[in-house]
Amino acid sequence: MSQHSHTSIFTTASGVLGGVAKAVTAKPLLSEITLPGLANVVIYAAASAAAGYFVKHFMDSVARRFNNYFNKTEKK
Predict the structure, then answer these.
(1) Which of the residues 1, 20, 45, 67 has the least number of beta carbons within 10 Å of its own beta carbon?
(2) What is the pLDDT of residue 1?
């Protein structure tokens, strides 16, 4: 499995876990979870996964720039 797949799985899983945790803390009884509440969980999970993905993408970009900078410095 590629690193990109690992990242996608990790960010999706963390988003879903975050959404479920939010739902359970807000409504501890499963019988109280409604369709609009479930929609909120899905939206929260998708937003968390997207945020995680973009943060990871940004951090990879920063790491690549640092790596390129230090590799150029060593060659001189």
Answers:
(1) 1
(2) 44
Nearest to 35 by CA among 27, 11, 15: 27
Tens of pLDDT along 23-63? 677 666 666 667 787 788 778 777 877 887 788 888 888 88
**Packing angle, helices 35-75 and 3-26, rounded to 10:** 140
The H-or-E segment that residue 72 falls in is helix 35-75
Dihedral in degrees, nearest 10, Cα atoms 65, 67, 71, 74: 110
- CA angle at residue 59 from 55 to 63, to 5 degrees? 175
